[in-house]
């Protein structure tokens, strides 16, 4: 294992304030910094460092927390009375070209992975934001590219390697330690061990990607959303459909944008897929751009621009009841944005949401996913922007059937995240593998949930 003297660790008691803050929050994407202070930060460079950190936490009777990409809005990795294991320097991508299975470290981002896979004619449907680490993304379920047609990214996980709370190094798949494998696909930040490696099944790379956009005035929000909803369930399964309330440079007021991006093997197939929307779009749009050629790399650039670095964020989300008047429920979220960088997003989930899910922790979905990303620049706007988010979500909540873990903050709102039986099973697995709460669980208000986990109730 090597000498512990070689462990890359920063102790709060010994480091300068500058060095400690760099290690504590330097890789936290949200610049609304948390008021929580780990005892130490281990910037792991190899699997042995992760094991050493867990053993050190056992000796010191501390908890361990984990940071993959640092993109969680609530900064779940930054915890009191803990050793934070930061995986940013632990990098691994190894492809088995015969099986198409790639082994990756949790800090690997979607852009990093797909940049390598592109040379092999392969793709992994990771996160839309280019710098999101696969670790947190996959644990939440993974609402990745074309989730409505290709399924959840966690369905492509074939195995994981973990370090457990008591320091065991295990392989988990459908044949061995299958309860941890079950939990890894949807447990989110309450997974009761530390994943050191994912084994992911890749897909053939669609070589022709095209996108159509339609911009509407926000007063026509209901028309725009009702239209895209009406075509979503039966739409081509290689096409992503989204409706966004946002601000664009050419418009003084915020607008509503409908975007369709299709991933195909030929230009003809891509244009044919997008033609369905082109032929049915209602009149009254402000502008449109039909079937422009794009690439995954270009899409990553646009996503990065929509989620700027060095900003302050809060986020919330809901799966909307299929039987509700979705446009009316979401209208305020899309048309009263509190800043020009904020946006609200409706994601079409059908037909994937109508298909039975495999045996895994992920078990919450509906046809309609709403996420609010409130973005601002200065601390002076913290109260106003967070209050807007809470007020809007309080009106949407009665029409929600649950929530996606990825865009949640359990300190602000608790609801339902899994099916009834799946939620109970997950909490039992957590108690079995992490009985002392060594691995930090769900960060609720006051960090009180510990081994018990979340209530999983609407």
TrEMBL record:
<comment type="similarity">
    <text>Belongs to the oxygen-dependent FAD-linked oxidoreductase family.</text>
</comment>
<feature type="domain" description="FAD-binding PCMH-type">
    <location>
        <begin position="34"/>
        <end position="205"/>
    </location>
</feature>
<dbReference type="InterPro" id="IPR016167">
    <property type="entry name" value="FAD-bd_PCMH_sub1"/>
</dbReference>
<dbReference type="InterPro" id="IPR050416">
    <property type="entry name" value="FAD-linked_Oxidoreductase"/>
</dbReference>
<keyword id="KW-0274">FAD</keyword>
<protein>
    <submittedName>
        <fullName>Glucooligosaccharide oxidase</fullName>
    </submittedName>
</protein>
<dbReference type="InterPro" id="IPR006094">
    <property type="entry name" value="Oxid_FAD_bind_N"/>
</dbReference>
<dbReference type="InterPro" id="IPR016169">
    <property type="entry name" value="FAD-bd_PCMH_sub2"/>
</dbReference>
<dbReference type="InterPro" id="IPR036318">
    <property type="entry name" value="FAD-bd_PCMH-like_sf"/>
</dbReference>
<keyword id="KW-0560">Oxidoreductase</keyword>
<dbReference type="Pfam" id="PF01565">
    <property type="entry name" value="FAD_binding_4"/>
</dbReference>
<dbReference type="InterPro" id="IPR016166">
    <property type="entry name" value="FAD-bd_PCMH"/>
</dbReference>
<dbReference type="GO" id="GO:0016491">
    <property type="term" value="F:oxidoreductase activity"/>
</dbReference>
<keyword id="KW-0285">Flavoprotein</keyword>
<dbReference type="GO" id="GO:0071949">
    <property type="term" value="F:FAD binding"/>
</dbReference>
């Amino acid at each position: 294992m090597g000498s512990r003297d070689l462990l890359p660790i920063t102790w709060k008691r010994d480091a300068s304030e500058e060095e400690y803050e760099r290690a504590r929050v330097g890789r936290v994407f949200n610049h609304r910094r948390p008021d929580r202070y780990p005892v130490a930060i281990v910037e792991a460079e190899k699997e042995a460092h992760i094991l050493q950190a867990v053993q050190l936490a056992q000796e010191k009777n501390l908890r361990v927390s984990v940071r993959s990409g640092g993109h969680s809005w609530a900064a779940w990795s930054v915890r009191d009375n803990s050793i934070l294991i930061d995986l940013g320097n632990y990098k691994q991508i190894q492809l088995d070209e015969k099986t198409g299975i790639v082994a990756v470290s949790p800090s690997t981002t979607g852009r990093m992975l797909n940049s390598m896979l592109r040379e092999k004619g392969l793709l992994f449907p990771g996160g839309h934001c280019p710098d999101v680490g696969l670790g947190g993304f996959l644990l939440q379920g993974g609402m990745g590219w074309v989730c409505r047609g290709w399924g959840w990214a966690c369905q492509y996980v074939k195995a994981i390697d973990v370090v457990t709370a008591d320091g065991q190094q295990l392989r988990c798949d459908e044949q061995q330690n299958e309860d941890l494998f079950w939990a890894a696909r949807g447990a989110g930040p309450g997974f009761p061990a530390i994943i050191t490696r994912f084994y992911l099944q890749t897909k053939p790379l669609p070589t022709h990607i095209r996108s159509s956009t339609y911009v509407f005035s926000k007063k026509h929000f209901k028309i725009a959303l009702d239209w895209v909803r009406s075509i979503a369930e039966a739409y081509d399964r290689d096409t992503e459909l989204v409706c966004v309330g946002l601000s664009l440079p050419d418009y003084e007021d915020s607008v509503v944008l409908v975007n369709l991006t299709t991933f195909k093997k030929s230009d003809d197939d891509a244009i044919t897929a997008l033609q369905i929307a082109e032929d049915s779009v209602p009149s009254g749009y402000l502008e449109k751009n039909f079937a422009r050629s794009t690439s995954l790399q270009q899409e990553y650039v646009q996503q990065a621009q929509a989620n700027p670095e060095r900003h302050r964020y809060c986020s919330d989300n809901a799966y909307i009841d299929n039987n509700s008047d979705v446009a009316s429920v979401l209208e305020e979220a899309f048309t009263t944005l509190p800043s020009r960088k904020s946006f609200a997003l409706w994601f079409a989930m059908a037909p994937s949401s109508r298909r039975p899910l495999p045996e895994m922790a992920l078990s919450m979905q509906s046809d309609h996913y709403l996420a609010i990303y409130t973005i601002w620049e200065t601390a002076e706007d913290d109260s106003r922007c967070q209050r807007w988010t809470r007020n809007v979500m309080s009106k949407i909540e009665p029409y929600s059937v649950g929530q996606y873990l990825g865009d949640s903050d359990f300190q602000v709102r608790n609801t339902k995240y899994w099916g009834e039986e799946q939620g109970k099973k997950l909490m039992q697995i957590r108690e079995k593998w992490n009985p002392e709460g060594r691995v930090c669980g769900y960060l609720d208000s006051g960090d009180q949930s510990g081994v018990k986990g979340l209530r999983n109730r609407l």
